[in-house]
Amino acid sequence: MDKKERVKKIIKIFNQLYKDAQCTLDYENPLQLLISTQLAAQCTDARVNIVAKTLFKKYKNAQDFANADLKELEQDIKPTGFYHNKAKNIKETCRIIIEKFGGQVPDNMDDLLTLPGVGRKTANLILGDVFGIPGIVVDTHAKRLSNRIGLVSSDDPKKIEFELMEIVPKESWSIFCHQLVYHGRAVCKARKPECNKCGIIDYCDYGKEYSK
């Protein structure tokens, strides 16, 4: 069975197990999702959601963030870690959004990548979840699981993204990556995967070794 066939089987199972899989960051508009993804670097989504709840009441739009006092913004986002850099990136991102994009979050990869602190992972998440443009989001779960399953053999997120694009049907790109997150948290955990509970063990290289 080639990788494309395996992915089809895995998607069929994931669509039963995690049919409602979606981004686990809370947001009400594109800017909130963009800022939350910047805050989520080296931080859990759960913690970001707690911080963001207060943050988005205080700063309601790109203008508010662009005009924010840097030291004050740093304190507002401090629990997410790396707050000096994140605050600087958020302020600069919002300034660019106002000056170059009319106050709106860009809807294409090239423009999104011009924003500070925004890489392909964040851009693909924005494109898929906000604008309905399919993208492969390679976060820690997608990286770990795609290697364990045997769909890719690389630690390079960009290489993983393009390899998955070749074998995952385009219409499934966005939800498949969310499903990998759900499966990674519930079953295929970083330290010790619970292969005995895994619904896709028959299509997983690591699982086949486990079941021997």
UniProtKB/TrEMBL annotation:
Question: What's a BP term from Gene Ontology annotated to this protein?
Answer: base-excision repair, AP site formation
Keywords tagged on the record: 4Fe-4S, DNA damage, DNA repair, DNA-binding, Endonuclease, Glycosidase, Hydrolase, Iron, Iron-sulfur, Lyase, Metal-binding, Nuclease
Q: Give its E.C. classification number.
A: 4.2.99.18
Gene3D superfamilies under this entry?
Helix-hairpin-Helix base-excision DNA repair enzymes (C-terminal) (1.10.1670.10), Hypothetical protein, domain 2 (1.10.340.30)
Q: Which amino acid positions bind [4Fe-4S] cluster, per UniProt? A: C188, C195, C198, C204
Give the co-factor note. Binds 1 [4Fe-4S] cluster.
What is the enzyme's class at the highest EC level?
lyase
TM helices/strands, residue ranges: none
- InterPro entries the UniProt entry points to: DNA_glycosylase (IPR011257), Endonuclease-III-like_CS2 (IPR004036), Endonuclease3_FeS-loop_motif (IPR003651), HhH-GPD_domain (IPR003265), HhH_base_excis_C (IPR023170), HhH_motif (IPR000445), Nth (IPR005759)
Q: DNA damage: present as a keyword of the record?
A: yes
Catalytic activity entry: 2'-deoxyribonucleotide-(2'-deoxyribose 5'-phosphate)-2'-deoxyribonucleotide-DNA = a 3'-end 2'-deoxyribonucleotide-(2,3-dehydro-2,3-deoxyribose 5'-phosphate)-DNA + a 5'-end 5'-phospho-2'-deoxyribonucleoside-DNA + H(+)
Ligase listed as a keyword: no
A GO molecular function annotation here is: metal ion binding
UniProt cofactor(s): [4Fe-4S] cluster
Residues of the HhH-GPD domain: 39-186
A Pfam family per the record: HhH-GPD
Q: Which N-terminal residues, if any, form the signal peptide?
A: none
Q: Known HAMAP family for this protein?
A: Nth (MF_00942)
Question: Its biological function?
Answer: DNA repair enzyme that has both DNA N-glycosylase activity and AP-lyase activity. The DNA N-glycosylase activity releases various damaged pyrimidines from DNA by cleaving the N-glycosidic bond, leaving an AP (apurinic/apyrimidinic) site. The AP-lyase activity cleaves the phosphodiester bond 3' to the AP site by a beta-elimination, leaving a 3'-terminal unsaturated sugar and a product with a terminal 5'-phosphate.
Matching NCBIfam families: nth (TIGR01083)
Which family is this protein grouped under? Belongs to the Nth/MutY family.
Protein name as annotated: Endonuclease III
Q: Could you tell me the gene encoding this protein?
A: nth
